[in-house]
Amino acid sequence: MKNISIVLFAFIAEFIFSKIGLMFAIPFGFASSIWPAAGISLGIYLLFGRPALIGVFFGYLLAVYHSGMAFDLETWALPVALCVCSLLQLIITKRIIFKYIKLPVETSKLSKLVKFLLIIGPLSCLVASALGASILYVVNDLNYQEAIFTWAIWWVGDFTGVLFSHL
Question: TM segments (predicted)?
Answer without folding.
Answer: 6-30, 42-63, 75-92, 113-136, 148-165
